[in-house]
């Protein structure tokens, strides 16, 4: 299997499949990002528009479980936007997680971007919920598998309240995650690399190493604040933020 074939296979998967690394044991992270970029090219060729970037595995606990020391990056397109009130489409095994979402005012180009310079480029901060849906059976994968699968991206929904970053203490901004009326988890922005601006700076510097940049107007999902919870058919998942409103999604 080559990069183009792997991207085409992952984009065409509608049910569980084995990880790429089962048959491609030498798959590494650089090749996985090439697969991810090829999948984006194919998405754009079929009419999707690039709208931003997401980070995955931003919490220390998740990184330790995967045996890594840095998050992964993945692309967001307009086809992944889930408007308020629209049920989550049928997926393989969807999970939901609350996130802090940045909308950029200025271009960010690494290397050398700090959390302070990254935050200065942000126009508005929103609460959000990401729906992840790994194509791999039982969520079993290596880091290169996850990167090639575009970070298990499926959909995301952005909340109704957008505030300038100066109006918030992002490390203390809290999210309560609710499933069918029961609070199942809670976290603050500090769960995301210590501060979500650190995640944004990391993204800018990682893209800079690839000759790319974060562009004005882009949406950046900074990573799950809590563990992702299964979104079962007929269930409801809600994220309630301290200052950024609430989002409810129906399975």
Task: Produce the secondary structure layout.
Elements: H1 3-11, H2 20-23, H3 29-45, E1 50-56, H4 60-66, E2 72-77, E3 95-104, H5 115-120, E4 122-132, H6 143-148, E5 153-163, E6 174-179, E7 182-188, H7 196-209, E8 219-224, E9 229-230, E10 236-241, E11 246-250
Parallel strand pairs: 1-8
Antiparallel strand pairs: 1-2, 3-4, 3-8, 3-9, 4-5, 6-7, 6-10, 10-11
Helix pairs in contact: 1-3
Description of the molecule:
The protein is α+β, with helices and mostly antiparallel strands and 251 residues long. The chain contains 7 helices and 11 strands. The protein has helices spanning 3-11, 20-23, 29-45, 60-66, 115-120, 143-148, 196-209; strands at residues 50-56, 72-77, 95-104, 122-132, 153-163, 174-179, 182-188, 219-224, 229-230, 236-241, 246-250. The strands form 2 sheets. Strands 1, 2, 3, 4, 5, 8 and 9 form a 7-stranded mixed sheet that branches. β10 and β11 (246-250) form a beta hairpin. α1 crosses α3. The radius of gyration is 17 Å and the shape is globular.
